[in-house]
Amino acid sequence: MAYISSMVEGLLNSTDEFPTVIVNDGSIKTIEESTRWISDNLELLEAELNCTGAILFRGFPVKDAQTYDDFFSAFNYPNFTYKESLSNAVRINYTEYVFTANEAPKDVEIYLHNEMAQTPLYPGRISLFCEEAAETGGATVICRSDEIYKRLVALEPQLTNKLEEVGVKYTTTMPSEDRPESGQGRSWKSTLSVNNIDEAETKLKSLGYSWEWGTDGSLKAQTAALPAIRTLNGNRKVFFNQIIAAYMGWDGVKENPESALCFGDGSPFTKSYLDKIVEIAESISFDINWQNGDVALVDNNLAMHGRRPYSGDRKRKVLVVLGTAISQ
Ligand SMILES: [Fe+2]
After folding, report:
1. How confident is the model at residue 7 (pLDDT cuts 50, 70, 90)?
2. Distance of CA 297 from the midpoint of ligand 1 (Å)
3. Cα of 77 to ligand 1 centre, how many Å?
4. Chain centre distance of CA 120
5. Mean pLDDT of all residues in 280-292
6. Distance 113 CA to ligand 1 centre (A)
7. 306: CA distance to ligand 1 center in Å?
8. 242 C-alpha to center of ligand 1: Å?
């Protein structure tokens, strides 16, 4: 099948470019042909993902949640359900594994993050599928975590080495009920998969969190120290965390970073260090300007992602699948 070689010949096989874009040359017409093509080229595609951290598939016959589920399944990653995750975003499931990216309102920016890096369990792979692009805006922004690290350690070696050594702790407040209007409005019952306070406290203890109950039934929880910089195979260091998303996007954190973030030893971050991180990441970010049917595959260790705000009457519909659970 000629199309196989012509499309994979275009692979970059280089860490200098980002992301890889693979455009169907028109010869793959059905979802069955797509999944066969993926299976036949799996090794090459994985090697490419390991280089650039993200692949955008354009023009493949992926139309809806089911065909997307089929497309992603061809990569054979062990799946990861939203229910078992400790994600703090409100989402809606379409198939067992496919769910909405984030139900936050369109004017809310979701800032760069590695998926679920603020929890002890995170996916090694994240994929996004655009069923319906927004009228204006709504790009998924992606950024290389290894490039952020390289630039940050060159500019701020002391703080960055400390961050690597002691990690980071996150504090979040989970409401008593789901609040879809917030980017992090998942209730504590849903987040922790529990039914009552006793079960919640047992779960928190097992996760190594500390916590405090609010008078309104909310739960404020602080994680144990989690890695903020990870070393991957081949000694590749990555800035892997939710520091940017927390600082820029969580309620009141920009004004008061200590309300959500501290080094793993309890010491505070300075605003100037946080601002530098944000500036570096923004300078090397890439916007995926969605076309209907696009599928992005992201190595969650190697690249961060986020969502630009959008506008217009049409409902943007971007779906997500996670793969390969990793404990940290
Ligand atoms: Fe995300």
Report:
1. low
2. 13
3. 18
4. 14
5. 94
6. 6
7. 6
8. 10
Distance 1 CA to ligand 1 centre (A): 36
Structure tokens at 108: 């809310």
* Residues near ion ligand 1 (Cβ under 5 Å): 115
115 Cα–ligand 1 center, Å = 5
The model's confidence at residue 62, banded by pLDDT at 50, 70 and 90, is very high
CA nearest neighbour of 174 among 196, 162, 189: 189
- pTM given for the model: 0.90
Note the pLDDT tens digit of each residue in 216-233.
999 999 999 999 999 998
Place of tokens 């066969």: 36
Q: Report CA 38 to chain centroid distance, whole Å.
A: 23
Q: Is residue 132 within 8 Å of residue 101, measured between CB atoms?
A: no
Q: Which domains does the chain have, with CATH numbers?
A: 2-135+289-327 (3.60.130.10), 146-282 (3.60.130.10)
Residue-wise pLDDT tens digits, 65-105: 999 999 999 999 987 776 667 766 667 778 878 888 766 78
Using an 8 Å Cβ cutoff, are 33 and 2 in contact?
no
Whole-number Å distance, alpha carbon 36 to ligand 1 midpoint, is: 28
Examine the pLDDT at 212 and tell me if it is beyond 80. Answer: yes
pLDDT at 10: 54
